[in-house]
Amino acid sequence: MDKKVVYIDMDDVLCNYSKAHKKTLEDNPEILFPQSQPGFFENLEPMSNAIESFHFFLKSDCFDPFILTAPSVLNPLCYTEKRLWVEKHLGLEIVDRLIISSHKGLLKGDYLIDDHKEGRGQEHFKGTLIQFGQSDFKDWEAVVVYFRTKYCKI
């Protein structure tokens, strides 16, 4: 069986962007764009079970996972910070699986796990878009069960 290429978004999929954004706005209402602040992306908390779920894909004989994230045009440091986040939470060996692109539809693959349906090219992705946090894919447990049941039978 060929491995399925699975792209996984970072913001609000692997890491909790919304929580940090909301907290920064509450603590510092004068900062209109919290994501523009140095350290914002590097210090995001992982989503519940995100790290374990990424490792499920990585260790499986069924999948070839990559991280596909869009940059913040308001924070040029986000390119470095997202790379540092991956190293900190997933390990240096995963850094070469990080792809940063504002045009997600240009990549070829079987699945894209993203919290948005459009905006960064998700609507042009030729594979299957799994909308994380919605309906059947409300959390990482549901996502892993879907993929394990459909492809791995374990």
Outline the structure in words.
It is built from 4 helices and 5 strands; from the N terminus they run βααβαβββα. It has 154 residues and is an alpha/beta fold. The chain has a single domain, classed as 3-Layer(aba) Sandwich (Rossmann fold). Helix 2 packs parallel to helix 4. The chain is globular, with a radius of gyration of 15 Å.
* Share of β-strand residues: 5-15%
What is the CATH C-level name? Alpha Beta
- Total number of strands: 5
Q: What characteristic shape results from the CA principal axes? A: globular
Largest sheet: 5 strands, parallel
Characteristic terms for this protein:
154 residues; alpha/beta; Rossmann fold; five-stranded parallel beta sheet
Summarize the structure.
The protein is an alpha/beta fold and 154 residues long. The chain contains four helices and five strands; from the N terminus they run βααβαβββα.
